[in-house]
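In the laboratory, one determines a bound structure by crystallizing the protein with its ligand and collecting diffraction data. In a computational setting the workflow is compressed into a single prediction: the sequence and the ligand go in, and a structural description comes out. We illustrate the idea with nicotinamide-adenine-dinucleotide.
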Amino acid sequence: MSEKVRVGFIGCGGIAGSHLTGLAHMEDVQLTAFCDISAETAERRAAEYGGQAFTDLQTMLDTVELDAIYLCLPPFAHGEAEFAAIERGIPFFVEKPVGLDPDLMKEIASRAQAANLLTCAGYMNRYRNGIGRAREILQSDPLIMAHGGWVGGPPNGSVPIHHWWVVKGKSGGQFHEQTTHTVDLVRYLGGEVVEVYAYGARGFNRKAMAALPQYDMEDATVVNLKLESGAVATLYSSCAAAAGGGGVILNLFAQEHTILFTGWEHTGRFLTAGSPEIIEIRGERDIFAIEDRAFINAVKTGDRNLVRSSYADGVRTALVTLAANRSLETGQPVAVKW
Ligand SMILES: NC(=O)c1ccc[n+]([C@@H]2O[C@H](COP(=O)([O-])OP(=O)(O)OC[C@H]3O[C@@H](n4cnc5c(N)ncnc54)[C@H](O)[C@@H]3O)[C@@H](O)[C@H]2O)c1
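The predicted complex, in structure-token form:
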């Protein structure tokens, strides 16, 4: 590896920008190449951060030497990029959710494992101090029940992501695409999910349907989850609350501890039985930079313990949210199986 970690991006839209802001300030990172099916998007990133722009990922990989690749692709666009990275032995970071097709994701995970490749799934909340503290607490005082989710306003087409996000066949729906963060935290803090049962509401989101005629997903979803440990959770999504008042929530209840996370930053309040004290751990605003630092350090040192969610771990979270989608379709509880 060269002195600097040479990083390439495949998919250079919104979330790529969040990673680039932090990576651009890391002295040991060289932003080397940008690939996007939109030439204008790739060229804009190259103009801003240096490096070369490409519209074809194989051409990019044939042209430049890379030590790490960020895959910042919509859920429906995975496969070719992961296989190319594995074939060339280049560690990759992939944004959540890591895909839409269980068989494809399992194949990627198995080939990455066979190649013994360092991978990272973009579940940045795992790097928060408050989440780390909650994990420590719940290891000795196990989770009994959790509830939480993401409630936001109607998508209106003001940002590019909205255009594919509202098409269920492209994003997987809000629960799969966004509440995946909360599902992932329940797994990280409470252990594996073995069964889900979902209900969905449709047809209410007039504002989203008017702004984006392709809108065809649930306006709201409520999902019950059964964990391997015997604990239970209810997680929900809605993107129809134009008046606000929703946000990001994860409340966790154990015998001796209650842990309440609120907001995108996941600021945590920690309550302990028998103690009047409530401890607050504020969520980090620069969490993408923290996550990126961990991944880059892992690439440099080979220390995989620095990465808190591998690609395969990301697949496990996706299998839960896709099981919820199957439950919506069938009206039945669905077992979550690898
Ligand atoms: N971690 C987070 O909190 C977070 C936040 C936002 C988005 N995301 C995730 O990041 C992913 C991308 O979202 P986004 O907001 O950047 O979307 P976006 O629509 O803004 O950008 C996606 C980009 O990928 C490009 N693209 C599509 N197919 C491609 C292909 N085959 N090859 C190369 N480029 C291709 C598009 O042209 C676009 O520029 C999604 O999975 C989303 O869930 C994660």
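The two ends are 35 Å apart (CA to CA). Keep in mind that any predicted model is a hypothesis to be tested, not a measurement.
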